[in-house]
């Protein structure tokens, strides 16, 4: 019996099982003018999943700024945005989530997340030069978290290390809200020559369509649909929807893909990630306003007897679709033969925008490309949103309800923060990643707030960072997300570079919950405002809804987590600024305004146990002024070190600069403020700088003439002690031992 | 001096090595493809780091059978110079060109960080400019780097002065905490009996560019060039 004849007629019930809404099923019938067969319905279900269509988010995403003087390709035009970085080079970068697969199968889930994001970059013809990641886990003392974290870190390491691109930065954050639903966001950054970009397009009737790379198996079928539903206890049944990674194939695919571009025979290329052949054929065709005739039986498969719809929907990794100029097939085949990779013609480009998929000569699906894709016929929804009750509750918090601790209490708080999993050294994680392959990581021996990646043969370097304090976002989505952008920009600036553009990974709960959607809307508003202020357009990214954990049978969304990946440009390597104290006797200043603000600080949340409070203070104008001033100070050589104040507050910034420089500090607090707020508050727009004594006059003169507040704190000391207001807060070496040992201890 | 850097499928430190040899040390470098049989008249063949053929079996176990390796082994047997770093060292062990084997790290985890190594002898091409006892800071990045050899092999290596580098603390002491992968005798680098084949786990090519803030690895390349210049 033929494949289509053996399929039962689809009904609204089938549609629901595939994650489609009844009205979406009606719309599909309207588009086709008939009832879809199972294969066609499956195609619509993956293409109209949130993962591929952004149907519940695109309305708001469109409000984000995407234009800028340095933008060569704007968000949504290609697989990733493209930014001009000078010297005839462009930078392609993007961040993407792999949360749901990682929740079920942490090792493969995380590994394939790394693979997928790198393919997004090299499918454009850019060579990846750096990777970053942002990881969120639940309670670090739970067995489940340990299993998830060990698996995720090993998965990222094994894939990224073998692929051979350095992992230069990232963040790790713990909170119970991620207990069952970790967040795994991976970012890749690549470089190419301006004008050499390959588009994800298809045109020219008669041009051959090739599938290249790994063979197609049954892994990851309906993965995009799975990624667009709630995580529940029953989700483990969906393990077959998780893909399996092969970094060796990816490495070969990278080299072969970049080499095949140099033949000039490539019309368009797109990687196969979510929704596999379905997504790449439809998106390329819709972009190039052509159709395709695809013979699925020609696709190399890992096992016999795969059905047409399985081949169409498989999310097997390390594959690409390439449309080639007719007559140039041999040039393309030669490259893939050299690298011992599959390269098989599976179809041809046709006139019209119809996609026709065949299996052994039988037409198994006949669908219009345009109606499948984002910006075409994919549905677009405006979701309802409503302010959750907790928001006003959080705002009622007053610092006056917290007594100011005495000296002993302050010391206790300081040591709590040094040893806290959200603040301690990430070395247990980062040591498992090859951070130096490629010989471009300039931060290994010269740490700064952002990772600095050398562009060999030029005087430029990239500054990269990922940031999001999701507790702030939960407390106040708009301010919290603006802070995530501000902190990313501050990290770039503290390294001596100029913020250039961002990519975002939007991790939220179920968008059909108005309270969850309210956090999403607020986040987008805050992100837009901050990006406009810092002139850092959004080049693209990814939306991941349906992230939640279950507590006592009550479903709680994860903290709204809009991770910001930012790229900055160091226009001259001589401006590279590091964070460590350099010499005993250097003067320490706080640049930026202090406030009596402990809102949403680690101090308030985990040391004092107050879970609900507003986001810390942020004023975007004040932040922007700080950035301009810090860059001037760095360019003028007036500062010896710069380190921003963020999680854990001023005290932790001082400790981190001291730790990296192996020098102590002796400082005084400002009596105008509560000592706990001064030391541990996390209000924004501040940085700790050290100044050589001979530069003090110029520094003070410069600061006095600026609109930015500054405070003299004290000096860097030879003796490895941390002294505050004459009180010894402890020995630096002992503190370093604690700080460096936390994660290894938890994961033992 | 003419260098040939072998490119196996999965090599990923090949271009880092080429960059240092060509752009920093100013030497002639050719790429040697794993499927070829021609060493193109190189004075020294370099096997770079990476994950040759994915290293899903045992690191280096498949690369060792590549067509180019027939020629590399013949070159070594003729007394020609061969230098293997990280995965290259693993391939040399698999090919039997240097003694010992490289096992999974004691921690069972991949480790990437700066480590200290102590030069054990100046009596080799790659250490000729280094004082015995001199400590270099050079990064490692491997999952299978724990050097192992049985006691009779170790004794033979010792009496032949074949141990080039050992992991140590910043002062040169062989402290257990300073042995990142649990290597037998802290061994980080060795040569063969004929003193023409060299293997080391740390990556000197990652510590040779001034822009990366550490040039401790350069002395290994300088040793090679200096010793060869003297000879020619």
Order of helices and strands of chain B: EHEEHEHEEEEHEEEH
Oligomer: heterodimer
> What CATH architecture label of one domain in chain A applies?
Alpha-Beta Complex
* Cα separation of the termini of chain A: 56 Å
Share of helix of chain B, binned:
10-25%
Name the overall outline of chain B. Answer: globular
Considering the chains and any ligands shown, give keywords for the structure.
A: 748 residues; alpha+beta; Phosphoribosyl-aminoimidazole Synthetase, Chain A, domain 2; 27 helices; B: 232 residues; alpha/beta; Rossmann fold; nine-stranded mixed β-sheet; two-stranded antiparallel sheet; 5 helices
Give an overview of the whole structure.
The complex is a heterodimer of chains A (748) and B (232). Chain A has 748 residues and is an alpha+beta fold. Among the domains of chain A are: 1-63 and 198-380, PurM-like C-terminal domain (Phosphoribosyl-aminoimidazole Synthetase, Chain A, domain 2), CATH 3.90.650; 578-748, PurM-like C-terminal domain (Phosphoribosyl-aminoimidazole Synthetase, Chain A, domain 2). Chain A is 36% helix and 23% strand. In chain A, strands 8-10-7-11-9-12-13 form a seven-stranded mixed sheet. Chain A has a seven-stranded mixed sheet with strand order 22-24-21-25-23-26-27. Chain A has a six-stranded mixed sheet with strand order 1-2-3-6-4-5. In chain A, strand 2 (81-86) and strand 3 (89-97) form a beta hairpin. The mean pLDDT of chain A is 95. Chain B has one domain (2-231): Rossmann fold (3-Layer(aba) Sandwich), CATH 3.40.50.880. In chain B, the strands form two sheets. Chain B has a nine-stranded mixed sheet with strand order 2-1-3-4-11-10-9-6-7, sandwiched between helices. Chain B has a two-stranded antiparallel ribbon with strand order 5-8. Chain B is an alpha/beta fold and 232 residues long. At the A-B interface, helix 9 and helix 11 of A face helix 1 and strand 6 of B.
């Amino acid at each position: 019996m033929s494949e289509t004849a053996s399929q039962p007629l689809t009904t609204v019930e089938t549609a629901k099982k595939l994650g489609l809404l009844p009205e979406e099923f009606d719309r599909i019938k309207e588009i086709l003018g008939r009832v879809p067969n199972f294969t066609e319905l499956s195609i619509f279900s993956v293409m109209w999943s949130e993962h591929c269509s952004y149907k519940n988010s695109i309305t708001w995403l469109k409000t984000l700024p995407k234009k800028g003087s340095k933008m060569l390709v704007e968000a949504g035009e290609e697989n990733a945005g493209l930014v001009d970085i000078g010297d005839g080079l462009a930078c392609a970068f993007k961040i993407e989530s792999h949360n749901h697969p990682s929740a079920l199968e942490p090792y493969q889930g995380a590994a394939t997340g790394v693979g997928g994001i790198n393919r997004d970059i090299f499918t454009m013809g850019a060579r990846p030069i750096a990777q970053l990641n942002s990881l969120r886990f639940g309670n670090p003392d739970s067995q489940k978290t340990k299993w998830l974290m060990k698996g995720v870190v090993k998965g990222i390491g094994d894939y990224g290390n073998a692929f051979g691109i350095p992992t230069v930065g990232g963040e790790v954050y713990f909170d119970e809200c991620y207990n069952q639903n970790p967040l795994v966001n991976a970012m890749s950054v690549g470089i190419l020559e301006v004008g050499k970009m390959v588009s994800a397009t298809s045109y020219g009737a008669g041009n051959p369509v090739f599938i290249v790379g790994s063979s197609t198996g049954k892994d990851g079928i309906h993965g995009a649909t799975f990624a667009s539903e709630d995580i529940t206890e029953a989700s483990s049944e969906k393990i077959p929807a998780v893909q399996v990674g092969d970094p060796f194939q990816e490495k070969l695919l990278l080299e072969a893909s970049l080499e095949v571009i140099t033949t000039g025979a490539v019309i368009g290329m797109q990687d196969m990630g979510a929704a596999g052949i379905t997504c790449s054929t439809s998106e390329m065709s819709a972009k190039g306003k052509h159709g395709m005739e695809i013979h699925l039986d020609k696709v190399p498969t890992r096992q016999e007897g795969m059905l047409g719809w399985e081949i169409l929907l498989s999310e097997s990794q390390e594959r690409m679709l390439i449309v080639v100029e007719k007559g140039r097939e041999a040039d393309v085949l030669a490259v893939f033969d050299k690298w011992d990779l599959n390269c098989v013609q599976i179809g041809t480009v046709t006139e019209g925008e119809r996609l026709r998929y065949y299996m052994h000569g039988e037409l198994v699906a006949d669908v219009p490309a345009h109606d499948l894709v984002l910006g075409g016929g994919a549905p677009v929804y405006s979701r309802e949103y409503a302010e959750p009750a907790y928001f006003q509750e959080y705002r009622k918090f007053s610092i006056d309800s917290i007594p100011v601790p005495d000296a002993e209490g302050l010391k206790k708080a300081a040591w709590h923060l040094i040893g806290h999993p959200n603040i301690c050294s990430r070395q247990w994680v980062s040591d498992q990643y090859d951070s130096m392959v490629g010989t471009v990581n300039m931060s290994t021996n010269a740490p700064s707030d952002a990772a600095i990646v050398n562009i060999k043969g030029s005087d430029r370097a990239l500054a990269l960072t990922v940031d999001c304090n999701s507790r702030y976002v939960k407390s106040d989505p708009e301010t919290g997300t603006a802070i995530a952008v501000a902190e990313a920009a501050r990290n770039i600036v503290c390294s001596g570079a100029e913020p250039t553009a961002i990519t975002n990974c939007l991790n939220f709960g179920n968008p059909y919950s108005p309270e969850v959607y309210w956090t999403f809307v607020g986040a987008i508003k805050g992100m837009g405002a901050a990006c406009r202020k810092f002139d850092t357009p959004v080049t693209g990214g990814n939306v991941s809804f349906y992230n939640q954990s279950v507590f006592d049978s009550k479903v709680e969304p994860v903290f709204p987590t809009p991770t910001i990946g930012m790229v900055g440009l160091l226009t001259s390597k001589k401006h590279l600024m590091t964070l460590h104290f350099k010499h005993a006797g250097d003067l320490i200043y706080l640049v930026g305004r202090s406030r009596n603000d402990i809102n949403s600080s680690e101090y308030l949340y985990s040391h004092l146990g107050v879970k609900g409070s507003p986001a810390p203070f942020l004023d975007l104008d004040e932040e922007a002024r700080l950035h301009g001033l810090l860059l001037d100070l760095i360019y003028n050589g007036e500062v010896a070190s710069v380190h921003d104040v963020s999680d854990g507050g001023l005290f932790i910034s001082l400790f981190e600069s001291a730790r990296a420089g192996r020098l102590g500090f002796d400082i005084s607090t400002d009596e105008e403020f509560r000592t706990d707020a001064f030391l541990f508050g996390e209000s924004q727009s501040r940085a700790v700088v050290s100044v050589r004594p001979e530069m003090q006059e110029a520094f003070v003169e410069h600061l006095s003439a600026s609109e930015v507040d500054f405070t003299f704190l004290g000096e860097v000391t030879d003796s490895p002690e941390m002294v505050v207001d004459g009180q010894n807060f402890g020995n630096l070496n002992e503190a370093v031992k604690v700080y460096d040992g936390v994660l290894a201890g938890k994961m033992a | 001096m003419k260098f040939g850097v072998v490119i196996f499928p999965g090599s990923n430190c090949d271009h880092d090595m080429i960059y240092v040899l060509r752009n920093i040390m100013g030497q002639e470098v050719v790429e040697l493809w794993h499927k070829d049989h021609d060493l193109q008249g190189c004075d020294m063949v370099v096997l770079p780091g990476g994950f040759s053929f994915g290293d899903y079996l045992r690191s280096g176990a498949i690369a060792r059978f590549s067509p180019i390796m027939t020629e590399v082994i013949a070159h070594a047997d003729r007394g020609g110079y061969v230098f293997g770093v990280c995965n290259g060292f693993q391939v040399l062990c698999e090919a039997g060109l240097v003694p010992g084997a490289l096992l999974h790290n004691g921690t069972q985890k991949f480790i990437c960080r700066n480590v200290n190594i102590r030069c054990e002898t100046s009596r080799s091409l790659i250490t000729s400019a280094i004082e015995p006892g001199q400590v270099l800071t050079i990064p490692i990045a491997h999952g299978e780097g724990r050097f192992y050899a049985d006691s009779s092999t170790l004794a033979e290596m010792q009496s032949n002065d074949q141990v080039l580098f050992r992991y140590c603390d910043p002062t040169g002491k062989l402290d257990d905490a300073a042995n990142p992968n649990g290597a037998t005798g802290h061994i980080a680098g060795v040569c063969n009996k004929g003193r023409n084949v060299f293997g080391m786990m740390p990556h000197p090519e990652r510590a040779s560019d001034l822009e990366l803030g550490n040039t401790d690895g350069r002395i290994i390349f300088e040793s090679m060039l200096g010793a060869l210049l003297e000879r020619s």
